[in-house]
Amino acid sequence: SRRQTGFEHQANKRHGVRLHHRRLGFGLLTWLCCPCCSKILPEVMDAVFKAIALGAKAVGIGRPALYAMSAFGQEGVEKMIRIVKEELEMTMRLMGTPTLGDIKKDMVILDDLNKHNTLVPRDFLQRETYIPKMSQAHMQGYTRAAPAPGSATTAAPSADAAMAAAAAKAAPAGEPTVSEMVGKLAFEMASSLASTIVTTNARLSVHRTAVVLILYLFVHVASNALVFAGKGIFNDNYLALSGSGLVRAVELYLLAAAVLHVGFSVYLTISMKKLSIPKGKSPLSLLERAKLFLSGVVVLVFVVVHLQHFRFGDEASLPLAERDLYGEVTTVLHNPQDYALYMAGNGLLGVHLWFGWAKTCNKFALTGANKRFFKPVAAAGQVLCAAVTLGFAAIASAIHFDLVKA
Q1: What are the residue ranges of helices labelled H in 158-290?
Q2: Is 112 helix (H, G, I), strand (E, B) or coil?
Q3: Residue 375: enclosing H or E segment and its boundaries?
Q4: Which of 120, 124, 210, 375 is least surrounded by Cβ atoms within 10 Å, i.e. has the fewest?
Q5: Residue 287's pLDDT is what?
Q6: Is residue 348 scored above 90 in pLDDT?
Q7: Distance separating alpha carbons of residues 151 and 95, to the nearest angstrom
């Protein structure tokens, strides 16, 4: 009480209550913490860091303590206190506040404090990542220990022991075999490929279009490798593909995927302020923050030049039966400047694929029991991306140095 603590004011947070004629918890806290008040017990609430930032000297913990005590007794409450302490310390690290005294009011956004109704962004994290609302004890199979013979009470199990048992129960199996890893990689890529690339979720669209474009690169490098089989087979393959209506449809789908990938990537880069240099950081830090965007811009220019050479060039107007794609490729790559351009563009494509694949894996269903597949799939994908890059480089170099037969 105020009489016991010696504080003049106390503001309590009300869970689930919306009184339109009264200020809610943080609003009262900001009003009470003014220079004219000498003794204040600001809001007692669970948002510890925010309460301290707004001037709180005491922060009470309600429901977590009750839940922990109900499940594990005293050990549960002690464990809960350690968790709260660790989370507060992590928040302080992320906010750059070594001590409680370094926590300042300007670290809390108060723009919507006086509004009774505010727009809340759709919570994809809660919907797609967190588990459904149900008892954790039920899901993990927590049970109280059986009473000892002759005992009238039932002892609560150790919180640490119960959590360790749950972790062991939920731990994935051993490392997957090569065949399991290849199967999982193929399944996840097929699942992403089967999903439509048209979605309003920017991150999901970038993921799905990335899978489509990566699969196309696998097919493209395999088709280009026919240059080693000779001029006749290379040109015949080109004629067969160019005369197919299905290939035309695939090309339109690839164009749509490329446009969506570039558009949403630019949107995410701008919205996340990846192109801004944080205060106190070197301009070179931009290479790390926006490496995918910067390499993507160069790759986009490279693709435009590539299309200009072989899709929209002077030879493109000739009838298919008269066109010698093999001769066009060798002519371009025998030019030292064009060869250097292709090697540089291909190298940056490899960089883009290497770092981009690591992000692509984050959207695969590789959580829970499938978590053991995450690292192997990520590593295998990067190896395949490196193989594609080296394949393009080897083909261009073989043509430039006349190592292929006519």
Answers
A1: 159-170, 178-194, 202-224, 231-242, 245-271, 285-289
A2: coil
A3: helix 374-400
A4: 120
A5: 86
A6: yes
A7: 50
